[in-house]
Amino acid sequence: MDTTTGELRKVHIFTTTLGFSSLVYAEIFLDEKLPHFITGTVHALSYYGAVPKYLVPDNLRTAVTRHSKDELVLQSAFSDLETFYDTIVLPPPPRKPKGKPTVENHVRFLETHLVEELKKDTYISLEALNAAVKKIVADINQRPFQKKSDIRKSRMNGFEKYDKPRMNQLPGESYTLCDYKYFLKVPDNYHLEYDAHYYSVLYTYKGKPAILKATMTEIRICDEYNRLICRHPRSYRDFPLYITDDNHMPPEHLYYKEVNAHDGAYYRRWASVYGESMVTLIDRILRSSKHEEQAYNSCAGVLHSCKDVPHRLVQEAAEKCVEANACKYSYFKKVLSMVQNNHSSSAINGTGKLPSHTNIRGKEAYK
Questions:
Q1: Are 60 and 42 in contact (CB under 8 A)?
Q2: For a tag site, which of 53, 130, 292, 300 has the least CB within 10 Å?
């Protein structure tokens, strides 16, 4: 009951049971949405202190995306749960309650022994309601069975003696509940939006479906088959809004990021590797524009074109540009190409004669 308005609110009971002992777990939530369904499952496994080989959920959309005689597709959050606990999720055939008789019987049992008991009182908070549920369920699990010949004696005794020894251990760490966001297509800018921030994914996934999973500390991005593509630390700062991994960028974007990330001093330092003439060339290019930033592309172009070129040839090309007072990217490219061609020609058209030296023997020495 809402204490401010006096209004009664409908609640939902999440329940599980085990195959042989029939040990019951129940918890109340305000709805049947995904976070509560996952939370209920995690709490139930924690209550058991072990993991069964199979989880057999109902075919509600919270757990199962598609289930037919030909195909079973689990909801990605439930698929993550399956992986984390190293168990197997096997929903029963749709619209066939006989596929899960144990839990169907316990639903009817709890309608009588839990719901009717809860109706005897009024609760003003979910915490108080679940405390009452916990107490009633504990009594149900300890209650002896009517048949004296039942080897289980009670649900709890049957669980401790028969079910738990055959179950797997819980993982060492606790399950982290994620907030899931689905994208039909990765946008052209290869960034996915979550909580007013944009997280990058490899640019080759543009136009493909993706799943974003958010925890309090991390953003995980998976493909349509729930396979992990990348991770990002979750950002709560107002700036920057775009969280980009350089490895996700296409080559052309990475180039322009590099260009825009540096100032004139950076390009002058880079030019000093090749000599004074290159420093002069870059300095004149930077000064040729009204605003220095407008010349960064040209500086980057000049210096990138020198990659794998001998320094002496770069220095010679820069000298020619400075002497001709033609300090431009296009002119430098032409001069550098001409210098390289001239060097190649001279190497090919050389005389081929060895220098004169007293230690060098000629053909006469071999007669």
A1: no
A2: 53
Among candidate residues 304, 316, 17, the one with its CA nearest the CA of residue 140 = 17
Map tokens 């210098």 to a residue.
339
What was the pLDDT predicted at 346?
Answer: 66
Residue 142 burial (C-beta neighbours within 10 Å; 0-12, 13-18, 19+): exposed
Q: Residue 190 carries which side chain, given as an amino acid letter?
A: Y
DSSP-derived letter for residue 208 is S
3-state secondary structure of 44: helix
Alpha-carbon span 293 to 287, nearest angstrom: 10
DSSP H or E stretch at residue 72 = strand 72-74
Q: Which stretches of 1-92 are DSSP H helices?
A: 34-48, 76-85
Residue 70 clears pLDDT 50, i.e. is over it: no
State mean pLDDT over 44-60. 88
d(CA 48, CA 165): 11
